[in-house]
Design brief:
It contains seven helices and 33 strands. With 519 residues, the protein is α/β, with parallel strands linked by helices. The relative contact order is 0.04.
């Protein structure tokens, strides 16, 4: 075997050629280095003579036949570099570098200790490894063990099928996963981790940004348990039953405002979107939520219903049969107490209380006493009145007329017993007005008749009083007329008596004179 000192690029043929140490390449030294590196990276353009072995000093390369006939087109350059010797139709491999190994079909290993064991795989960089078919490992100690995977960067590792690991110590172990960034990890299938230390653990998860961790399946993380991030400038998402859009803070705030508006009770929205609790006043209680307020309202309604039922039992109710308010309670007549004094006037419809009727009765009693006194005076003058019987008979006719008028007045007084039981704020009293008309109070027990009584009195009590008043009025009127007539008659009689006395005196004088004359 010839000793070979140089492998040079032949610009004319576009291939590497093996030459002696005295041969020179075209161009400057720096230019040759750049050209050689470019050619190594673009291996698809390398054309090297079949069965080439590179020896420089002690460096040796070898071809290894796994099975079958030794093929051509393999390349092994560097100390202990190894390239599988497939036939051309099966695929040739290339190994370049110290202990480089290209054992996969059509595989390429470039760099010290680089290994390309997967078919059509590429390992570029010291200790780089491409074990997966058609996998690419680029960078020192990078590893692409997943088929169709790519690991780019120092210690980058793409073990998942069709995965991509880009960056120092990046790891893409999930199938079709992607890890981009320093120590980024995508272990879930179809996951993606972007950023320094980002981790996409769940299936179909996405971790965005340094330190972000997506643990759950089908999740997106923009931070972790200790570090969170805002997502800004997000367009408004659709809000409907089938929407899967992300919504913005403005949409959440608007929703909170809508809830606050509908809650009422002073509910409002804080700057962070939370809703300030409303204040509902039900009865004497204050509540901060709808449930408690409704519960309190229900209790209040129940209590009100009980109060109304009790009021209906104890209140003065309208009796449609008699067209009047009835004081009947538990089947018996009852009193109305604490009744303010009603107005006493010709047009009054107020109910009167016991003290008012007591005062009237007191006056009736006084009139009775006065009548007794007058009766004594009348009896004293009976003898004188007898002479004036004719005049008295005439007066009797006049008295009958006056009695009719008094009875009419009594009817007006009866009208005063009409009462109103509903409170009239303008009058500060209860009103018995019903359906726009005045009404009666029936079944009213007799009220107490005393100076301090505030009981309402009934018609029978007032009727008895009216009877007494009418009788007294009649008697007083009769007595007054009789007394007046007697006084007139007595005056007339006195005049006559005086005249008669004068006449008698005159006659006596005349008789005396006549007696004298006769004598």
């Amino acid at each position: 075997m010839n000793r070979i000192f140089k492998v040079l690029w032949n610009a004319a043929t576009g291939t590497f050629i093996v030459t002696s140490e005295t041969a020179k390449s075209r161009g400057k030294k720096s230019g040759r280095r750049k050209l050689a590196v470019s050619a190594l990276i673009s291996l698809s353009g390398i054309m090297i003579s079949a069965d080439a072995l590179a020896n420089a000093g002690n460096d040796t390369g070898s071809g290894v036949t796994v099975s079958g006939t030794t093929g051509t087109g393999w390349i092994a350059i560097g100390t202990d570099a190894t390239a599988n010797t497939y036939t051309n139709v099966d695929g040739a491999s290339a190994a370049m570098g110290y202990h480089a190994s290209a054992m996969g079909k059509w595989s390429t290993a470039i760099g010290s200790y680089s290994q390309s064991t997967g078919d059509s795989s590429l390992a570029l960089g010291v200790k780089s490894t491409s074990a997966g078919d058609r996998a690419i490992a680029m960078g020192a100690s990078s590893s692409a063990s997943g088929s169709y995977s790519m690991a780019m960067g120092v210690y980058a590792d793409s073990s998942g099928a069709k995965s991509v690991a880009l960056g120092y110590k990046s790891v893409a172990s999930g199938a079709t996963s992607s890890a981009l960034g320093y120590q980024a990890t995508a272990s879930g299938d179809d996951s993606a981790a972007f950023g320094n230390g980002a981790q996409a653990i769940g299936t179909n998860s996405v971790a965005l940004g340094a330190g972000s961790t997506a643990l759950e399946d089908n999740s997106v993380a923009v931070g972790n348990s200790t570090t969170q991030r805002q997502i800004t400038y997000v367009a408004k998402g659709d809000i409907n039953a089938n929407s899967t859009d992300a919504v913005t803070g403005a949409q959440i705030y608007s929703l909170s405002q809508s809830v606050a508006d509908r809650l009422g009770g002073g509910a409002s929205v804080n700057s962070d979107g939370t809703v300030n609790a409303p204040l509902y006043k039900v009865g004497t209680g204050i509540y901060n939520n709808v449930g408690s307020a409704l519960s309190a309202l229900n209790t209040s309604i129940t209590n009100t219903e009980a109060s109304v039922a009790g009021l209906a039992e104890d209140a003065l109710l309208w009796d449609g049969n008699t067209s009047a308010f009835s004081a009947n309670h538990s089947g018996s007549d009852s009193k109305i107490t604490n009744l303010a004094a009603g107005t006493l006037a010709a047009d009054s419809t107020d109910a009167v209380n016991g003290s008012q009727l007591f005062d009237t009765n007191e006056k009736v009693d006084q009139n009775t006493a006065d009548i007794t006194t007058n009766t004594d005076s009348i009896n004293q003058n009976t003898t004188d009145i007898a002479a004036n019987t004719a005049s008295i008979n005439q007066n009797t006719t006049d008295i009958a007329t006056n009695t009719t008028n008094i009875n009419s007045l009594s009817n007006s007084v009866t009208t005063l017993t009409d009462d109103a039981l509903l409170w009239d704020g303008s009058a500060s009293a209860f009103s018995a007005n019903h359906s726009g008309s005045d009404s009666k109070i029936t079944n009213l027990a007799a009220g107490t008749l005393a100076a301090d009584s505030t009981d309402a009195v009934n018609g029978s009590q007032l009727f008895a009083t009216n009877e007494n008043v009418s009788q007294n009025t009649t008697d007083i009127a009769a007595n007054t007329d009789s007394i007046n007539q007697n006084t007139t008659d007595i005056a007339a009689n006195t005049t006559s008596i005086n005249q008669n006395t004068t006449d008698i005196t005159t006659n006596t004088a005349s008789i005396n004179q006549n007696t004298t004359d006769i004598a």
